[in-house]
Design a protein that fits this description.
homodimer; mainly alpha; Arc Repressor Mutant, subunit A; Tetracycline Repressor, domain 2; 2 domains; DNA-binding
Amino acid sequence: MEVRKPYDIDSLTDVALRVFAERGYDGATMDDVARAAGITKAGIYHHVTGKEALLARGLDRALAALQAILAEPAANRGRAAERVRFIVRRVAETACSLLPELTVLFRVKATSPATESAVERRRAFDRAVARLIAEGQADGELSTAIEPGLATRLIFGTSNSIVEWYRPGGALKPAQLAAAIEALLFEGLGPAKS
Amino acid sequence: MEVRKPYDIDSLTDVALRVFAERGYDGATMDDVARAAGITKAGIYHHVTGKEALLARGLDRALAALQAILAEPAANRGRAAERVRFIVRRVAETACSLLPELTVLFRVKATSPATESAVERRRAFDRAVARLIAEGQADGELSTAIEPGLATRLIFGTSNSIVEWYRPGGALKPAQLAAAIEALLFEGLGPAKS
DNA sequence: AGACGATGTTACTAGCGAGTATACGAGGAG
DNA sequence: CTCCTCGTATACTCGCTAGTAACATCGTCT
């Protein structure tokens, strides 16, 4: 009664994403993935059509998670500034919990139909946030010193950088990290002013 | 009297870095570099010992520029908080002016002696800034809400993200961008308070 | 003029990495 | 016990890429 199918598409995607995140998609070989999965390269092709399919599945996971954030109630009610803060926090938490997926998404270049579509979906996410920031500025709740598009890029520059160094299991918990990022981006590093 | 040596090591490094930045080091081929330089692949090998040498030269340029920032007078006199702000501004400006070099540096993984040493030198830079932030916190001029090491990572997460989207020639000038980053990181996105 | 050296070019080589053809082996149905 | 199916492994193919070898070109020095 031992599991007869220890390897299905999803578990192989898990493994592949960890390898891609570590070595880079181009730098990772299918043998690397196979070794990490404890299987042979040829075995992988019984479950997946190819290397790019693994990438595409990972990008899909990451984008679905980001879009899910925009669909959460707290991202859709209340004042714009609060909604932006919520999204920033949730993106940071998601970066921690879906680390390999978001690592791959944040590094991907548009070089094929699959990656082009992923890049486009990601841009759409950024645009949604930029609109929200513009709204918050119009409400007078966000500083107008920075143009919304630029603010969006810098915000995600900050939170996306999580994937470059965060490793689960450390002392820093995702919620703490998210709170720190929120504090930095909205209150700044200067001395407390209020 | 036309230039007799259009291709020397440095100009080839220029070209190679642009290609590496665009395609990624692993994704770029020596033929890509050759084509971009308007030369044959074999021709490159008359000037450079190999692909990794081009990478190493680029990493060296980037790290030299970062270290030069730490050596500037404004980074060594005055209050710690001001010095940190200066460094943040200069890193942002350098990211604009040495875009390909810093793009490659920020994406490099430690996979060979050359890249390991680059990653280590970069860490040393981060540590120097972290020490300065700790000093600024001790002075009471920087918020103690964030641990210095984390603050450093997030600061450079923000400014390093420039290389993902900034392209020279646009309306946004490096100095403006640097000022915007400084404002975001130190004053925050919240409404102006003081 | 003629030889040399620096710079390029047109072939190659060698090896790695994605993907495949085929054989193997274990469990279930008859 | 036999056949079928599913998953896996072994042993390939084949293209692409870093790097090389041998030949061509051209300015320069004598």
